[in-house]
Automatic annotation (TrEMBL):
It comes from Microtetraspora glauca. The modification 4-aspartylphosphate is found at D54. InterPro entries: CheY-like_superfamily, NreC/VraR/RcsB-like_REC, Sig_transdc_resp-reg_C-effctor, Sig_transdc_resp-reg_receiver, Tscrpt_reg_LuxR_C, WalR-like. PROSITE patterns: HTH_LUXR_2, RESPONSE_REGULATORY. This is Response regulator transcription factor. Residues 141-205 form the HTH luxR-type domain.
Length: 205
């Protein structure tokens, strides 16, 4: 069972998200938070697998909350089409992915499942704006890039296209566990904290 904490300062939005998530047989909403500080405190106490985090909230914004939750839970950021610097900061803080608030129920559930598996995701429309904002992607040592093996570069390209571990495995003819190992090595070598960062970095090469 995937344990999820929903954090949004709008009660109606929270209720809608909870309703959708609890409709999935493999997802359990373990808590709801109306502000960033409560989200962090509840996550530390409840240890959810995924925190569905709004960007703009009182007491503590989504980026600060995401930074504090490093190592506690994977964070899936909720955002609108009008991205702001909070979202760019959340990427640097290690957010596992970004989900548009107008996404449909099926995509929301799929996104939570992906993040819970350690995959992460970025909506294509979000990716374009992130690339423009980063103007070349997160800073990575050129020597680190050169240290990637040809296979790791292929895996990085898969991350750049937003592929899951299973999709990378199929495209490269390897086992999913092997693909997962390669992904971990690529992130470690490049000093990146998430697949989301890897996707933006690859797009800027």
């Amino acid at each position: 069972m995937i344990r999820v904490l929903v954090a949004d300062d709008h009660a109606a939005v929270r209720a809608g998200l909870v309703l959708i998530l609890e409709g999935a047989s493999d997802i359990e909403v373990v808590g709801e938070a109306g502000d960033g500080r409560s989200a962090v405190d509840m996550a530390v106490r409840l240890r959810p697998d995924v925190v569905l985090m709004d960007v703009r909230m009182p007491r503590l914004d989504g980026i600060s909350a995401t930074r504090e939750l490093g190592g506690v839970a994977d964070v899936l950021i909720l955002t609108t089409f009008d991205l702001d610097e909070y979202v760019f900061g959340a990427l640097r803080a290690g957010a596992a992915g970004f989900l548009l608030k107008n996404t449909d129920a099926e995509s929301l559930v799929s996104a939570v499942r992906l993040v819970a598996r350690g995959e992460g995701l970025i909506s294509p429309s979000v990716t374009r704006k992130l690339i423009a904002a980063f103007s070349g992607g997160p800073d990575v040592d050129p020597v680190a890039v050169e240290s990637l093996t040809p296979r790791e570069r292929e895996v990085l390209a898969g991350l750049g296209r937003g592929l899951s571990n299973a999709e990378i495995a199929r495209s490269l003819g390897m086992a999913e566990a092997t693909a997962k190992t390669h992904v971990s090595r690529v992130l470690a070598k490049l000093g990146l904290q998430s697949r989301a960062q890897a996707a933006v970095f690859w797009s800027g090469l």
